[in-house]
Amino acid sequence: MTELSKSGAAVGEPTDASPAPTAFLEVRDLKVHFPTDDGLVKSVDGLSFSLEKGKTLGIVGESGSGKSVTSLGIMGLHTAGQYGKRKAQISGEIWLDGTELLSADPDHVRKLRGRQMSMIFQDPLSALHPYYTIGAQIVEAYRIHHDVDKKTARRRAVEMLDRVGIPQPDKRVDSYPHEFSGGMRQRAMIAMSLVNNPELLIADEPTTALDVTVQAQILDLIRDLQKEFGSAVIVITHDLGVVAELADDILVMYGGRCVERGPAEDVFYQPRHPYTWGLLGSMPRLDREQQDRLIPVKGSPPSLINIPSGCAFNPRCPYADLPKDNVTRTVRPELAEVGTRHWAACHLGKEQRERIWTEEIAPKL
Amino acid sequence: MSDDEKAVTIPAQADEPQLQGGTLTKNPAPGEVLLKVTGLQKHFPIKKGLLQRQVGAVHAVDGLDFEVRSGETLGVVGESGCGKSTMGRLITRLLEPTGGKIEFEGKDITHLGVSGMRPLRRNVQMIFQDPYSSLNPRHTIGTIVGAPFKLQGVEPEGGIKKEVQRLLEVVGLNPEHYNRYPHEFSGGQRQRIGIARALALNPRLVVADEPVSALDVSIQAQVVNLLDDLQQELGLTYVIIAHDLSVVRHVSDRIAVMYLGKIVELADRELLYKAPMHPYTKALMSAVPIPDPRRKNAKSDRILLQGDVPSPISPPSGCRFHTRCWKATQICTTTEPPLLQLQPGQQVACHHPENFADQAPQDTVLLSVAKEAEKLLGETALQESAETSAAVAATLSEEAAEPVVDAAEPETGEEK
Question: How many CB pairs below 8 A link A and B?
Fold first, then answer.
């Protein structure tokens, strides 16, 4: 992580050491770029947010919006892999509890990974090792960070499996991943990620591979465990329903950047970015009267090699022509405050957006 | 096919749907039964050993009865492994049924061979889930969408190329993309290509297996709207298989809820979503996360089902849902409830339906009281509760003529 990226020409100016933030997790101007034969893929292009302990941040976006790349960046997992002999270029700052991770010694980050911060992956079948029993994998995760004998670690593994609701944990601890059903595998993964009482838990699409009844169980479990352990949680998902269930704050990503961020209620009830409106409009809802038609976002998500100039959303935005001087196509909008702790990046005037939302969008949802 | 009218207008990618349904003469009158399925079964054998002897079977689909009327959309929902995809492949006859009967337009197609099915393939088409694996990467879009014409030996008016370009326009793609390959398209565009291919021969029935689940939210809505428009314009009949209850509600007229190879509830959309009768339907609907943060803390009326779906290799006896059902009683473990029409437009297979008079009231009272008692008082008090149950049974046998609704509630209250 030391030799990282600061050389990358396309990556923004290296940030000077700024004072450590007060928030538990603070990400400042994070950029993750991958050089490929076709060009530089700007998966994350200037993302900032902060998160307190005990709170949940939901990151929403479509595939290719940079959600997962962000989470892997925080975990420091990008440097491990090589992308066609070229490394990912990462810049910015990630402060976790007073430590800056990107400039820190990789050995130090390795000590934090799994202990202070851990991750739940989307597909438990590919994230669990098929050759080892569930117990062995949890024990390994525990013993790396704790100097205990195997017996103690095993007892701890059984205790965790019990906590996440696996029946007969003392027997199931010796099962292999293929002997578990999808929901149980996800529970086992959660047990593994929580075995060291991490303070930051990143759940990347934790329920996407699961059925709806099992999803409800897992969401409940994550919520209860968070209350119990008081960790900070980042939930990454494309499902607005999941976000609404779990998150205190919501960050909407589009084309590698944050387009809107704010408290969950505000983002759902007073969204201030046309892309958020689009997401809300394209989703059929069970809690409302039947809509006649969905209101889709036209077109498809942008290529990250060739992000549209100006506002990345402008080719799909129905209001792109409203601001003067073609500004949506030339100037990239920055996040601006639109309410208490609520930011949106859009060229439309604040009042204009309020008017469009209340008069045109909200009645149709 | 060449005698088909080509008067269908092209819906641009968005905008208002233009109702042109009347211009197509081929479709039967709406409401007519197009597809009739009785007792449909599919068991996949499990073979073991040197001799490959059959040691068991996966009961993927185990006795389905339903009808699809022309012009309507039947939605099929259920969790993974409930047999919904197998059902889709059976009615399109991509799989050979183990038992039961499939009738399409009154004709028995249950055991037709490949050549026997060929003429029918024009009328029954399928849209697949994964737009990445269902298009041949070595073929151009023109070849892919034109294949049905070649296979059926149909020469459309104006040539295949012209017809394919028209179809591409119908599904909202650029006709100039005729010579491109699938990898040049995004997921949503590929799904449109799959739809164009399914529509090529102007089918009557389109079976769509998870048509939008592989797509992003904003693209999902585009494809859902496209399917909607096409149905209105071409008078199509859909069977849409999906696991997403909100999508199914949006597209369907009637909905079948499947659990372990059986239909547990089959009802009109409004009835099903307003007052589901089968406990499984209720649990399934309550499990859907609602995109409304204000509901987050009202831990609500969510019914959390315990455990997972049992294995379809040896499904539970009686009602297949009884292992996870909170209303299950003795009768549920022994007797399988038939799919009965409890009110117009709503068929349910349950002994103790929600929102309706109980089908096996005596059983409920006796057993749930006994169960409650066992839980609350422990074994020492079991005897006492048995007496209570007996007393209740006595009262009940007097009232047996009247239907008893939720009689269990007051009784259990007393026990506490």
Answer: 137
Nearest to B245 among A63, A286, A290 (CB): A286
Separation CA B265–CA B243 (nearest Å):
15
Give B236→chain A minimum CA distance, Å: 18
C-alpha span between A301 and B137 (Å, rounded): 22
CB B228 within 8 A of CB B15: no
pLDDT band with cut points at 50, 70 and 90 for residue B350: very high
pLDDT at B7: 42
Cα B146 to Cα A28, A183, B163, B205, distances in angstroms = 52, 42, 8, 19
Around A214, how many Cα atoms within 13 Å sit in the side-chain half-sphere?
Answer: 22
Task: Give yes or no for a contact between B155 and B201, defined as CB atoms under 8 angstroms apart.
Answer: no
Handedness of CA A271, A273, A278, A279 (dihedral sign): negative
Please answer yes or no on whether A215 and B287 come within 8 Å at the CB atom. yes
Higher-scoring residue by pLDDT: A219, B5: A219
Mean pLDDT of all residues in B222-234 = 91
Q: With an 8 Å Cβ cutoff, is B188 touching chain A?
A: yes
Partners of B177 on chain A (C-beta within 8 Å) are: none
Q: How confident is the model at residue B291 (pLDDT cuts 50, 70, 90)?
A: confident
| CB-neighbour burial class of residue A2 (10 A; exposed 0-12, middle 13-18, buried 19+) | exposed
**Cβ–Cβ contact B245 with A under 8 A:** yes
pLDDT band at B378; cut points 50, 70, 90: low
pLDDT band at residue B383, thresholds of 50, 70 and 90? low
Of the candidate ranges A55-69, A133-147, B151-165, B349-363, the one whose mean pLDDT is the lowest: B349-363
Dihedrals phi, psi of A133, to nearest 5 degrees: -70, 160
The per-residue b/e assignment along B119-131, b for 16 or more CB within 10 angstroms, e otherwise, is ebbbbbbbbbbeb
Whether B205 has a pLDDT exceeding 90, the answer reads yes
Compute the nearest-CA separation of A67 from chain B (Å): 14
Tokens of A332: 């990239």
Residues of B in contact with A247 (CB under 8 A): 293
Express each pLDDT in B100-115 by its tens digit.
999 999 999 998 888 8
Q: How confident is the model at residue B26 (pLDDT cuts 50, 70, 90)?
A: very low
Q: In 3D, which of B169, B116, B117, B161 has the Cα closest to residue B143?
A: B161
Angle at A329 between CA A324 and CA A334, to 5 degrees: 85
